[in-house]
Design goal:
Blueprint (H helix, E strand, L loop, with lengths): L3 E4 L12 H15 L4 E4 L13 H11 L4 E4 L2 E2 L5 H14 L4 E6 L4 H6 L7 H17 L4 E4 L4 E5 L13 E4 L3 H10 L2 E3 L6 H19 L34 E4 L2 E3 L3 H18 L5
Parallel strand pairs: 1-2, 2-3, 3-5, 4-5, 5-8, 8-9
Antiparallel strand pairs: 6-7, 10-11
Helix pairs in contact: 1-2, 2-3, 3-5, 6-7
């Protein structure tokens, strides 16, 4: 059993200089790595009006430079908004710089105002997602130049560089909640991202379904996510602003130049509560 963090980052907040929230997010995750957390997942959002993180891979690249073992996840990169070749190049660069720690979570998006802002019809989300995903996968696995002429994207005689550190590519993660969508994730061979709001018994049912499909297809071959066990990072859950998140950061004490120890009471409480589970895991009783 592994434990991780899911959340967002807000660049600015009242009384703090613009950009301080990003630094707090980095320090929060540095602290999490020191406490033994396995990974972190970060959202992507645009046009919110409260400076929510939009350049997800950029922030994770900064975090990669401050950590050594923490896995760096996107939850999610919304593929319909991105040039898939440029996104493949940027993600591969992060995977190389982090020595193979990228977990590449992808999704279709759902916020109407974001699609409107990009002048992309929400009705095209599914088709754009599927085409972009196919291009990114080919970009990371093709050993030769290739061309693509699709509905939304055209590329001629390209070789996407740099290559990824993880082979054949960083692990794909997809969000799902309904039985049908969970089955589709398992059938693709991807890892599963679950929501933060379902009851634990429902989370268990979803994991059991995911595993049953995976075992039927190819055996017990993929990692299990961290369902419902994420402490909230600054920004709270990545979907709605938490006006109280990070208010203790102003009391952080200096440990070394350029680094603060974040006093996040929720994180420390959860670490204490999960300590018995982690001890059992170390003894090999949990998988």
């Amino acid at each position: 059993m592994r434990f991780g963090i899911f959340g967002a980052a807000q660049a600015g907040s009242p009384g703090a200089p613009m950009g301080q929230g990003f630094h707090d997010f980095i320090d929060f995750n540095v602290e999490a790595e020191a406490l033994g957390y396995h990974g972190t997942f970060l959202v992507e959002h645009h046009f919110t009006g409260w400076n929510q993180v939009s350049a997800t891979l950029t922030l994770l690249t900064w975090l990669a430079a401050r950590t050594t073992t923490l896995r760096l996840g996107t939850a999610v990169m919304v593929l319909p908004w991105h040039n898939p070749v440029i996104l493949a190049e940027q993600a591969a660069t992060l995977d190389l710089l982090s020595d193979g720690r990228l977990d590449f979570g992808v999704g279709k998006g759902y916020r109407y105002n974001e699609f409107t802002g990009f002048a992309i019809p929400l009705a095209e989300a599914d088709a754009r997602f599927e085409e972009a995903l196919a291009i990114i996968t080919k970009a990371w696995t093709s050993q030769q130049r290739f061309s693509h002429h699709g509905r939304f994207w055209t590329f001629d005689d390209i070789l996407v560089e740099p290559p990824t550190s993880q082979k054949p590519h960083p692990p794909f993660w997809m969000a799902a909640g309904s039985p049908a969508s969970i089955r589709r994730v398992a059938e693709r061979g991807y890892n599963l991202l679950l929501d933060q709001f379902a009851a634990f018994d429902m989370i268990g049912e979803r994991i059991a379904l995911f595993n049953s499909v995976g075992v039927a297809l190819a055996g017990p071959y993929r990692r299990i996510p961290y369902p419902g066990l994420w402490p909230r990072a600054r920004g709270s859950g990545g979907e709605q602003p938490d006006r109280h998140a990070g208010r203790d950061h102003g009391q952080a004490r200096r440990l070394a130049p350029g680094r603060r120890r974040i006093r996040d009471h929720e994180l420390r409480r959860l670490v204490r509560e999960l300590a018995p589970l982690r001890a059992r895991d170390h003894a090999g009783l949990l998988r």
